[in-house]
Write a structure and sequence with these properties.
The chain is of the alpha/beta class and 307 residues long. It contains 16 helices and seven strands. 51% of the residues lie in helices and 15% in strands. The strands form two sheets. The protein has a five-stranded mixed β-sheet with strand order 3-4-5-6-7, with helices on both faces. Strands 1-2 form a two-stranded antiparallel ribbon.
Length: 307
């Protein structure tokens, strides 16, 4: 740890004070109220298929459902890619087993790409609507708008994306700080979620073979073409071992130092509450270890702009 910048920004006087301050300012969650549903993405998905979904409205309460469905599939093949979303899946190709109890069960294959359907394929889609319950839905359950129904499905599917957003939540939290850092005269580029190979390709900065195909959270390039890799994670205490986490970032710093680059690790979360020895090890071995409170106090900006 390079103590001087810590002492100045945190108004402390010793290494122990820095470690203590880290533990005192750990936060419980990095989720804000925008985390739960990505409404912009949902609206874009609905808008993309708005016409096709409105065509499906004509099937609600149909008196001759199979006939009407065939006409729609034949005359408006653009609706075919929308069918999976009606049962809350996004696959364009689907395989299902027809009967588990059969002595010789068949695997049924459905292709939901836009195309002109053959007569056998039309019959397969009629069976699909019947056996998945979609026919019953159109005839007996739906009374208003298929678009509204799909909107609800999209919200539900988006909740499954929260796992991925959990990993991205730190990036979203940090983005305003990086936007501020971009305005500093010393900073030339701020890159995020790319492979190190792009640094060599786009900026002609040599990267070691061991790093080229590895992904980074952030890379800061200053006007002297000095590179700083910033990795950010939130440790809730589940799924990972603290020692492995710390060791992995120590190794990342060592690899970067070999080619003359800097490294900053940003981490937070209640998973570190009982891991004082591991955090101390991180501070001892890694030049710059920060939590979100440290960043709010200006420590990240001070580190990046100190030269």
């Amino acid at each position: 740890m390079k103590e001087d910048v810590y002492f100045k920004c945190l108004n402390v006087q010793s290494f122990d004070d820095v470690v203590k301050k880290f533990h005192e300012t750990i936060i419980e969650t990095n989720r804000d109220l925008k985390f739960f549903v990505d409404w912009k993405k949902i609206c874009m998905n609905i808008e993309k298929h708005k016409i096709e979904l409105n065509i499906f409205n004509s099937l609600i309460g149909s008196k001759n459902f199979d006939f009407d469905l065939k006409n729609i599939l034949l005359n408006y093949p653009g609706v075919i890619p929308c069918i999976p979303i009606l049962i809350a899946i996004r696959d364009t190709n689907l395989k299902v087993i027809d009967d588990f109890n059969s002595s010789n069960p068949k695997i049924l294959k459905y292709n939901f790409t836009k195309r002109r359907l053959s007569s056998p394929e039309l019959e397969e889609f009629i069976d699909f609507f019947d056996n998945t319950g979609l026919k019953n839905f159109f005839l007996n359950l739906s009374s208003r708008s298929i678009q509204d129904y799909v909107f609800g499905i999209e919200v539900g599917l988006d909740t499954h994306a929260r796992k991925n957003r959990s990993g991205q939540a730190m990036e979203l939290v940090l983005r305003p700080f990086f936007n501020k850092i971009r305005t500093q005269k010393n900073i030339l580029h701020v890159l995020s979620q790319k492979k190190f190979s792009c640094v060599e390709k786009d900026f002609k900065i040599p990267i070691s073979t061991s790093l080229k195909n590895r992904k980074f959270d952030f890379v800061i390039i200053d006007r002297k073409h000095k590179l700083t890799n910033i990795e950010a994670n939130f440790f809730s205490g589940t799924g990972s071992k603290p020692q492995e986490i710390v060791d992995s970032y120590i190794n990342r710093q060592n690899e970067l130092k070999e080619i003359g680059f800097n490294f900053i690790w940003i981490t937070d979360g209640l998973g570190w509450k009982g891991q004082k020895n591991q955090i101390r090890k991180g501070f001892e071995k890694i030049d710059y270890l920060l939590n979100l409170d440290f960043i709010r106090r200006g420590l990240l900006e001070a580190i990046l702009c100190q030269n």
